[in-house]
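QUALITY CONTROL LOG
STEP: pairwise intake check
CHECKER ROLE: data steward
CRITERIA: each record must contain a sequence immediately followed by its C-alpha cells, with no blank fields

ENTRY 1 OF 2
RESULT FIELD BELOW
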Amino acid sequence: MPSRRLHEKTRHGCAKCKARKVKCDVQRPQCGNCLRYGCRCDFQDLGLEPVTVMEKISRHPKSGLTCESGSDYRNSPWAEIVSPPASSPSAECLIPYPNNIYQLPLPTIPNLNLHDLNIFRHYATYTSASLSDRDSVQQTWRVAVTQEALPHDFLMHALLSFASAHLAQICPAQRQMYGESAVTHRNIALRSGIPHLRRITPKNCHALFVFSSVIAISTFSIPNSPNIPLDSRIDNILTFIVLIRGVNTVLQSGLDWIQAGSLEPLLQTERVDWRQKIGPLPVSLRDAIQRVSAWNDQHTLGTRRELYAEIIQKLESFYGAFSIVTSDRSLVFIWCAIVSAEFVAGLRERDPMALLVLAHWAVLLHSVSAQWWAGERGKLLVEAIYHELDDEWRAAAQWSMDIVQRPWSP
C-alpha cells in the first residue's frame, strides 16, 4: 500500500480548514478550500498574513535569508532590521507579510519617467526664475504655477516644454534630445489645452492663463536649426504671436478670478498704463520711431494706415516703459499679445509696413539678448525681414539692421 503523501504543515491556515482538519493552501484573499466549498474565508477579513520574523528565518536554518545576489542576508546592512537580537523583546513580534506578494496585482500607475522628472526639477529650480528678477514673481512661477500644473495635464506639458527648451539652450551636448522633448511636450500641451480655451471657468482660468503664456514662450524659445530659411523665421514669430494673443482671450473672461487667486503677482506689472510713455526715449530711438510713423503716413492707404499708426504708438509706449521696468524682461512679449488680428494678417501677407513695424519690435527683443529665451532671435528676425523687403523698404529698415549688428546700446 503506497505511503500517504506528506505535506508541509502550516500554522497559519484559516479557521474553517482547521475545523475540517484539512490542509489550507493559505491563498489570499480566499483559500482554495473555502473557494471550492463556497464559504467565506477568514483571510477575506484579514488581507495580510501575520508571520514572525524569527519563524521566517527558521524555515531556512542552513542558508538563512539571502539577497538577490546570493550573498548571506545576515551579513547585509539589513540584518539588524530584519533579524533583531534574540534577547530583544521585539524579536517575536508579529509583522504583516504578504504570503503571495509576487501574485498581488500591480496598481495601474504608469512607470516613473525619470527624464521628465529631471526636466520638471529643472523647471522648479532654474527655469521658473528666468522670467523675472522680482522675488514675488519668481515665487509664483515656482510654487503657485507648479501647483496649478498638477491637476492640469496641459499646463504640466507646457512647463515641461519650456524647461526642455531651457535645457537645450544650456546643454549643447544634449541639445537635440532636449529640443525633441520640448517639441513633443509642446504638441501634447497644444492638443490638450486649446479645447479648454472655448470654456473658461473659475476652476481652469488660472491654469489657462499660465498655459497661454508658457506655451507661446516655449514655442518661441525652442532651438531652431541654424540652416532654417529666413522666411521661416518670420513664420515662427507669426506662430508665437498667434499663441501669445491667447493670453488676452483668457484675461477677457477671467481677469477678476485670476486677480483674486495665487497668480495675482504675475499681473502686477501689467497694471501699468502702456498707453502712456513712462520713460523718455533716447534721441536715436525716438527719431527711429518717428521715421516709421512718417513712412506709414506716406506709404499706407485706407484703414491700415490708422491700424499701423495705433500699433506704432503702442510700440513707442512699450519702449518708454521698458526703459524703466527692468525687473521683468519678459514684458517684451506683451506688445505681441495686444496687437490686432489685422496686423497679424498683414504679416502673413508680408505687407512691408507690417514687416517694418515688426523689425522695430525685434530691436526691443535684441535688447534682452542676454536672456536665454531671447539670445540672437531679435537679430535673426531683423535680418530675415530685411531680406524680405525690397531696396526702397530696406532703407526704412536700415536703422534696425544697424542696431542688431552690435550689442544693445540705445
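ENTRY 2 OF 2
RESULT FIELD BELOW
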Amino acid sequence: MKHWSAIVVFALAVAPALAEKADRTKPLNYEADSGECDDLKQVCVLVGNVVLNKGTMRAAGARVQVRKDPEGYQYGVIIAAPGKLASFRQRRDSTKPGLEEFVEGYAERIEYDEKEDTVKLITRARVRLLENEVQRDELRGDAITYDQRHAKYFVTGGKPSADPNNPDGRVRGTIAPRVETPADGSKAASKAVLTPDKNLANPRRE
C-alpha cells in the first residue's frame, strides 16, 4: 500500500485566475517523430519529442496519447523520457490589466482532462506560477492535481519523489510576497525579501 507523507489543498493567495477560457475552442495541434491514429476509437499515440499546442496551452514529452470522447472533450497522457520530465504550460485569464499569468508544470507523467478541467502531474511533480514571466509561487510533491476550474491545487508527498535533500518526499513550496502596484504604475518597494530554497533545483526539460 502506498503511504502519502502529506496531503495539502493549496488555494491561491491572490484573486483566483482561471485557465484561459478561449483555449477550449482552439484546435489541438501536435508534432512528433512518429504517430498512429485510430479514427474509430478517436485515439492518437505520438512518440518522440512530442509537442502539443492548443491555444495558449503547450505540453511536451517523449510519448503522448490523445483521446476524444463522443462529446468532443479531449484527454491527454504525456510521458517523459527516462530521467527527464514532461512539461505543461498555460496562460490564465488575468485578474489585472497589464498582468500576464502562466502556470507551468513538470512531472514524469502528466494527465490532461478537458471535461473536468484538471491537470494531474505524477511523480517528481512541480508547479510554478508566473506573473509577466517572473516566478511568484512554486509547489513540489509526488503528485499535484491542478483544478483549473476553481484555481486550486491538491498536493501529495511520497517516497517516489524523495531525493537526498528531501528523503521523505515531503510536500514543499514557496509563496512570494504580494506587492501592490501604485496608481502611477511605478513599482512599490517591499520590505519582504524572498530567499530561494537551495533544495529547489531547476527541472530538466526535454
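INTAKE CHECK: passed for both entries
DESCRIPTIVE NOTE, ENTRY 2: Residues 7-175 form a domain with the lipopolysaccharide transport protein A fold fold (CATH 2.60.450.10).
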